[in-house]
Amino acid sequence: MTGARARSLLRALTVLAWLDATSAVAQEAKDVLRPCATADLVGTWEVIRFAVVAPARVDRSDPYFYPYQRYVFSANATMRHVTSKTRITPALYRALLSRAAPTAWSVDGTGRLVVERQGEVGPEAAACEVLTREVIDPRSGVASPPGDVLLTQRDDANRPMMRHQLRRLGVPGD
């Protein structure tokens, strides 16, 4: 791959992952992203990047917005989401996981992650895409390896509201 092509591809992924995509950018992004399948998600994942797109608001006191988060997707179609204001140590992870309520999850035919929480009115869905090769963020220089997952939640007008970048962890019991 030429340097110019690599830079173009990196820009495309950055724009797609963190801003709205134009059709040209979306085509280039297809070179590095594919829809999730159920088997892609089974395991333990750490949120390594989180962004909220304006005008969405963040309530930092809501655990959903805590800086340290993990998702545990089980093959039995249950998921646990653990969050913390501090780094998640092995002991804290075990404690949080034991208290986290299991939630039903699936991946639909278009690759969307569908989550059904008990007591909520309806399911919640997020676009779910897997990186197929390494991409380096041109702003930060941070590399995102193949296999990282991008979750994008959209508003009622289908505009991106929130994005999470997840990286698989090698946690015992995956």
**Main sheet overview:** 8 strands, antiparallel, barrel
CATH-defined topology: Lipocalin
Q: Compute the number of strand runs.
A: 11
Element-by-element helix/strand order: HHEHEEEHEEEEEEE
Structural class: alpha+beta
Shape by Cα distribution: globular
Number of domains: 1
Mean pLDDT: 81
Tally the helices: what do you get? 4
As a percent range, the share of helical residues equals: 10-25%
Strand order of the largest sheet: 2-3-4-5-6-7-10-11
CATH architecture: Beta Barrel
Name of the CATH first level: Mainly Beta
**Residue runs with pLDDT of under 50 for 5 or more positions:** 1-27
Give the strand content: 35-45%
List keywords for this structure.
Lipocalin, 4 helices, 11 strands, alpha+beta, globular, 174 residues, 8-stranded antiparallel beta barrel
Descriptive report:
The protein is α+β, with helices and mostly antiparallel strands and 174 residues long. The chain has a single domain (34-169), classed as Lipocalin (Beta Barrel). It has four helices and eleven strands, in the order ααβαβββαβββββββ. The protein has helices spanning 3-18, 23-29, 38-41, 90-99, and strands at residues 33-35, 43-52, 68-73, 78-84, 103-107, 112-116, 124-131, 135-136, 143-144, 149-154, 160-169. It has an eight-stranded antiparallel β-barrel with strand order 2-3-4-5-6-7-10-11. A two-stranded antiparallel sheet has the order 8-9. Strand 6 (112-116) and strand 7 form a beta hairpin. Helix 1 packs across helix 2. Residues 1-27 have low confidence and may be disordered.
